[in-house]
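From the shared-data thread, chain only:
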Amino acid sequence: MKRVTVAMLAVLVGLVGVASAADTWTMDKAHSDVTFRVKHLMSKVTGSFVDFDGTITTDFGNLAASSVSFTIQATSIDTKNADRDKHLRSADFFDVEKYPTISFTSSKITKTGEGSFDVTGTLTMHGVSKEITLPVTFLGAAQDPWGNTKAGFEIDTTLSRTDFGIVWNKALETGGFLLGDEVEVTISLEVAKK
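Structure, as tokens:
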């Protein structure tokens, strides 16, 4: 039980499994997703980032020394619409030429329940750094058919895009705005013990 707890506490965006002292974990990108949804008029547009990476170090003897870092390449945004993706990469939104990455570095990990954890750290996006807390759910751990130790984690959270200086919008004649401020983020990760 302690080994599973250490692994779960070492997650940012879900990059860990069953841990022992000084273990390192990496992502299985083929079985991981970083997706988001944001309100547009009366519906919600879904998108993803397809290029991301991260590293987790877990120290079984000193959980406070465990760490996680995660980086997303902002230019890899994909909403299945080339014109919209081009606009999202522009200075109106992510301004990827100036701010090519989105990153998170953990600073504190707290158990909140059986299989659930809060991972606090600094999120840097669009040149703005803010401390946030991500709720992490541990989905289990097992060996795959080739003898690799794998684990799964999921994060569901909501971020304010304007908190990070992404403020572009258009007023509607009927009142309100074209885009919502709140962005629903889901990160589903399968990770492998290095």
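The longest strand covers residues 128-143.
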